[in-house]
Amino acid sequence: MKIWLDLPDAAVKQLAEEGRDLSRAALEALAIDAYRMNRLTGYQLCRLLEIPSRDDLDEFLKRHGVPLEYTIEDFEREGATSARLWQKQQTELSTGSNRERQPE
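RESULT FIELD:
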């Protein structure tokens, strides 16, 4: 689908950054608004804007002042992962310490 806008030259200069394609800026603005309104998912936003990875998407959203989605489920999952990794490290450290103390 193509969308045509009739804009005065002065508005074009104000809306597009120097050397930036106004069509792309308009697409990004529309997509960001849809994302903020939960009409697009992060995956759909990546596909629409040809953003290659989640990290690149997070960077793009940050540059445009969009807060990242971080749910309580994300927090709990990361907490469980951190606890599991901490426990693994403690086990490895204690096992390594015991090996060093034992004569060969």
